[in-house]
Write a structure and sequence with these properties.
It is built from 9 helices and 10 strands. It is an alpha/beta fold and 249 residues long. Strands 6-7-8-3-9-10 form a 6-stranded mixed β-sheet, sandwiched between helices. A 4-stranded antiparallel β-sheet has the order 2-1-4-5, with no helix packed on it.
């Protein structure tokens, strides 16, 4: 029996930059086998919140717990251990331009595992195959389409088999075909028991992947709840979708 509590729990999170308050007492939790989406207008602090969950931003006040352990004030070396189990999928893929696809995926394996070269090669090949990227090993990121770059970035993020995946606008700028590919990957990882936090403006992807939804507005989660129920209710979520209060999402 695996861990049964919240994989991530955030309690009363505050964050400001200078005089600008971004988060004003945000609370949040994530469990295994679920994806929780965070939506909100541009500049509402969605990515700042996501970055705080892997120690790239420090809260001014509040707690971040990972599997019940307070990780709020860990030092960089301690966060290094946590990040083996919490993967961050950057919006643009964040691939190393000077490395091949294969070398990009070798990078976390070299940094975090003691696998042999043969074992690393096998894992890289299997991971790429699982993303429909077989045969791309020797290509450079510049040889790939935008959708392929995003999938390579996602493949690199999950190659260490993390418990939690943080998705920062994973479908931004993608056509419907590649968007569906990313949705399928998110659901496949969820089916393997991985928790996911999805920051996005893409409501069809929210509906296709997420159990719960949080609307970030004016520094707090103004709406939190089950995706299917919120979809029916309308209200603030519907206003966000239609761009009535935020401009086009």
């Amino acid at each position: 029996m695996g861990y049964q509590g919240a994989l991530i729990e955030v309690k009363d999170f505050y964050k400001s930059f200078g005089s600008k308050a971004i988060h004003k007492g945000v609370s949040f939790d994530l469990f295994a086998n679920e994806v929780v989406s965070i939506i909100g207008g541009s500049g509402s602090g969605k990515s700042v919140f996501l970055r705080a969950l892997i120690g790239l931003e420090k809260p001014d006040k509040g707690q971040i717990l990972y599997k019940g352990h307070d990780v709020t004030n860990l030092n960089e070396e301690q966060w290094y251990e946590i990040r083996k189990n919490v993967a961050y999928v950057f919006q643009g893929g964040a691939l190393f331009d000077s490395l091949t696809v294969e070398e990009n995926l070798f990078y976390p394996l070299d940094a975090h595992t003691g696998l042999s070269s043969k074992e690393k090669k096998s894992r890289v090949d299997q991971t790429l195959e699982g993303f429909g990227l077989g045969g791309t090993q020797k290509l450079m990121p510049s040889d790939l389409s935008g959708g392929m770059q995003k999938r390579v970035g996602l493949a690199r993020a999950i190659i260490l088999d993390p418990e939690i995946i943080l998705y920062d606008e994973p479908t931004a700028g993608l056509d419907p075909f590649n968007t569906k590919n990313i949705q399928d990957v998110i659901n496949r990882l969820k089916g393997r028991g991985r928790g996911g936090i999805l920051v996005t403006h893409d409501m069809p992807t929210v509906y296709a992947t997420s159990e719960r939804l949080n609307l970030l507005m004016d520094g707090t989660f103004a709406v939190k709840g089950n995706v299917a129920e919120l979809r029916k209710q309308g209200g603030l979520v519907q206003e966000f979708i239609e761009g009535e209060r935020y401009g086009k999402a």
